[in-house]
Amino acid sequence: MEIFLIMKYEPIAIEEKWQKKWETEKTFKVTEDTAKKKYYLLEMFPYPSGKIHIGHVRNYTIGDVVARYKRMKGFNVLHPMGWDSFGLPAENAAIEHKIHPSKWTNENINHMKKQLKRMGFSYDWDRELSTCEPKYYRWEQLFFIRMYEKGLAYKRRSMVNFCSKCDTVLANEQVESGACWRCGTEVTEKILEQWFFKITAYIDELLEYCDKLPGWPDRVLTMQRNWIGKSYGCEISFPLIDSDKAIKVFTTRQDTIFGATFMLIAAEHPLVMELAKGKNVEKDVQQFVEKVKKQDKLMRTSEYYDKEGLFLESYCQNPVTGKHMPIFATNFVLAEYGTGCVMAVPTHDQRDFEFAQKFNLPMIVVIQPHNKTLNVETMKEAYVEEGILVHSGQFDGMENMKALDAIADYLESIGKGKRTIQYRLRDWGISRQRYWGAPIPMINCAKCGIVPVPEAELPVVLPSDVVLSGAGGSPLAALKIFVETKCPKCGGPASRETDTMDTFVESSWYFDRFCSPHCNTKPGLDRKALDYWMPVDQYIGGIEHAILHLLYSRFYTKMLRDFGIIGVDEPFLNLLTQGMVCKETMKCPEHGYLFPEQGASGKCHICQKDVIIGKTEKMSKSLKNVIDPDYLIKNYGADTARVFCLFAAPPEKDLEWSDQGVDGSFRFLNRTWRIFMDYVDEIKNIAPLTGKEELRDDLKNMRRKTHQTIRKVTIDIEDRFHFNTAISAIMELVNTLYQTPHPANNDKIGLAVIREALETAIILLAPIVPHMTEELWEILGNKTPLSEVGWPMFDKTIASEEEITIVIQINGKLRSRITVAIDEEAESIKAAALADEKIVAMLKGSNVLKVIYVPKKLVNIVVAQ
RNA sequence: GCGAGAGUGGCGGAAUUGGCAGACGCACUGGACUUAGGAUCCAGCCCGCCUAAGCGGAUAGGGGUUCAAAUCCCCUCUCUCGCACCA
What is the architecture of the domain spanning A231-422? Predict the structure, then answer.
């Protein structure tokens, strides 16, 4: 005979029990099953830094709920996890602690894997991958060679962004307002031989598809569009006086060309020295150029900048007015954008205006606003709005926006210009002078030049016996046995490329590899598996990757498509960018930032001084405002941690950490557990109510709530990922269970209603609170695990109210309420409203103008004021 | 400066399409049970007037559209994020 005791909710034991079961039974393993609809859910994989942090917990919890929900909805769900395991921290750890990067990385992976398992995430661990393994990056090397053959990977000497602390080059996308995205060190410029990926080959497609990704947040698409920065304009030639050469400029404002009165050139531009050569100013120009080169980076990060310039004692000619234009070298024209030269129109560009004022240069108004008349003598700033062209020859009287085309045509017809398009996006520099990355599979031969490593010799394995001293320079370059090789072409002595690839290359295709993680035949991706799983249906990760990782991955996808390796245009159908986890900072006036437990009492743990509570900021190690997930799990369990992360805020918003919030989540689970235990003996052998029996009031109410909750939770998860409102709906259901009088133990129908309600609460909670619900489900006597149970359906009639409250307003103000049957006719509701006791009293002597009835909501009576 | 988004009780946040503002939770207050309560259960909880019923006010501030606005439009303020001389 079975005896049921009222058991206490003990999350740790329950969670460990189910996690073990999921692991040994491989519950979440999936294979391609064409009979089922697939759903590929992916969270951004982590860098194995040591331990998981709360940001991971939140990201992966959101993903796990969706994965489990879709599974219950009958989808074949691919939900993988892996490690973005190349990168600098491993190398820095090696220098600091004399531990090999691979050992450090793998130890971290093992630890973090345990932590993720402890959270109960439903990953198919058989698909786990780690990007620092040769079996992963060998394919990346193969792709590299393909890219090289097609001109999509090339080497070029160029000015690069260099971080002295990380001792390596950074891509443009990795520079954040002049500083290194990783360590915050100010970025300097260097000229180096670099490998580039020709992302610009796909620039138009990358831009076009920004309009074809309705499942992405607008914010991210806008950021990508701006980053690509496409602008239409003209390249115009300005002939040099005393020379047969011409200066070419790019402009989007050819409508203002008649107002161009001088020429500006970026100081770094080679033309500057060319023009100054042999002139009186040559020395001064040389000095100026040197000065600008030095100040350049600082200037970009500073808020105030001085517009400086130096006259080159040279002139060019305006191709439409014939007027001579003095030429200046300046510090505020970008050498890398357009042609590095700008035609200056001081009347209609604020920068040019300021410059003209400073150097007392001529100004001509060419756009006249509709409402006032501009006068160059009195103008205080440039006029940058629209208007009518003046002083513009045959174009006078035209709207300036319309003149854009006309003037472009004219310039083309006289051979002085042509329509062009400029982009802000540059090619992706992927060379890194570091050790812990995927080797670039190229060989330099003095005779044959750059030669790819033959495919048969792949992978080029990263050697393990390297010396990491931190002294600077590439550690690989110092390793003779790696560098010295033979040229595959001529057999002569040659040297290997010692740069490694940017780690963003690995993360640009890991989602493809997850589809066939063990494929070891060329090209490492099984087309059949990819065609089944790709694209990713839902991608979830931090907003910080809005440009970098997401743009690179889109590019890589299009490229692999053109190689015939995959069949999709875009990797991620839907994107959810979750907010950051924040917490207040704590500071001791003497000992600086404190960890939460060091200042928990309000006093510093060392000196007992009062703790200063600071701003709420993103959790970070440097501010010490971090919560250790281990601590949370140990005290409350993974289920509570999951509920809290979801309940406190909708996923896309920042989440402010609160200890009380955690208590509240824990209390809710306990409350659910207790009401279940209160009933379990009585309902264990009773089937949940399924028919449409007439029920008495409290039971009818209970049952209605049950079905309403299914409806609400389904919509909240399915359409909006609003888990916070889904959880509150389930809380309401549990509250209703508490409020419903306990049916007598021979009241079979009553208990069947309760069983239906309890069962529903458990099933609806299952994706969010997987361990506790499995346990309760089992205690209820079910043999099939909850993870295999289908998502419940709601009955529309049961969920609908029979009686509804209609609000009565007079002139939009709430005055009374009436209760009517759900199917009551509009006319009789209006009549009832007008007949309502309170309303009659208030309407006395008023003139009713109109009665508006909003079905099932309200009656608004409009009276004369 | 430009671009995008946001602003609702003491707090986190609700309010599918314009239709009862404040769901749910936290904190707080009171009560019950109790040797005890930091457990649990029940109740109260936007602000003002009032014992109460009731009345008035309130979604950053101001104006507008509408029978009706947190929601739509215009202006102002504040905050967050992104880009910052892109010609």
Answer: Alpha-Beta Complex (3.90)
With CA of A254 and C1' of each nucleotide, the nearest comes out as: B87
Q: C-alpha A384: how far from its chain's center?
A: 35
* The two three-digit tokens of residue A47, written as one number: 């860098």
Give the pLDDT confidence score for residue A461 in this predicted structure.
96
Residues of chain A with CATH 3.10.20.590: 803-863
pLDDT tens, A65-100?
999 999 999 999 999 999 999 998 898 888 888 899
Does ipTM come in above 0.90?
A: yes
CA of A370 to C1' of B63 (A): 27
Determine the Cα–Cα distance for residues A511 and A529; give it in Å rounded to an integer: 12
- CATH 1.20.210.10 for domain A659-799, yes or no, is no
Q: CATH 3.40.50.620 region(s) of chain A?
A: 31-131+505-578
Distance, CA of A76 to chain centre: 26
In a 3-state reduction of DSSP, which class is residue A588? strand
Measured distance CA(A107)–CA(A246) in Å, rounded: 62
Strand B bases with any atom < 7 A from protein Cβ: 3-5, 11-16, 19-21, 23-27, 39-43, 55-57, 67-69, 81-87
Distance between CA atoms of residues A385 and A369, nearest Å? 8
Q: Which nucleotide is nearest to A739 (CA to C1')?
A: B42
Assess whether pLDDT exceeds 80 at residue A410: yes
A341: left (phi over 0), alpha (psi -120 to 50) or beta: beta
> What per-residue confidence (pLDDT) applies to A472?
65
Distance, angstroms, CA A147 to C1' B22? 58
Domain A31-131+505-578 sits in CATH 3.40.50.620? yes
Q: Could you tell me the CA-to-CA distances from A831 to A147, A334, A457, A824, A847 in Å, in that order?
A: 77, 74, 88, 11, 16
Nearest nucleotide by C1' from A546 CA? Answer: B82
CATH T-level fold of A803-863? Ubiquitin-like (UB roll) (3.10.20)
CA distance A569 to A554: 8
CA-to-C1' span, A690 to B46 (A): 42
A786 HSE (CA, 13 A, CB side): 27
Q: What is the pTM of this model?
A: 0.92
Please name the helix (run of DSSP H) or strand (run of DSSP E) that holds residue A585, with its range, or none.
strand A581-588
Give the bridge partners for A160, in sequence order. A190
Instruction: Give distance CA A728 / C1' B57 (Å).
Output: 30
DSSP lists the bridge partners of residue A186 as A179
CATH 1.10.730.10 domain position(s) in chain A:
659-799
Structure-token match 């099939």, residue found: A784
Residues in chain A: 865
How many C-beta atoms surround the C-beta of residue A511 within 10 A? Answer: 26
- Which backbone phi and psi does A260 adopt, to 5 degrees? -75, 115
pLDDT at A73: 96
> Closest nucleotide to A301's CA, by C1' atom?
B84
For the cut 70, the answer to whether the pLDDT of residue A300 exceeds it is no
Residues A14/A775, Cβ–Cβ less than 8 Å: yes
Distance A771 CA to B15 C1' (A): 32
C-alpha A302/C-alpha A24 separation (Å) is: 58
Where are the domain boundaries for CATH 3.90.740.10 in chain A?
Answer: 231-422
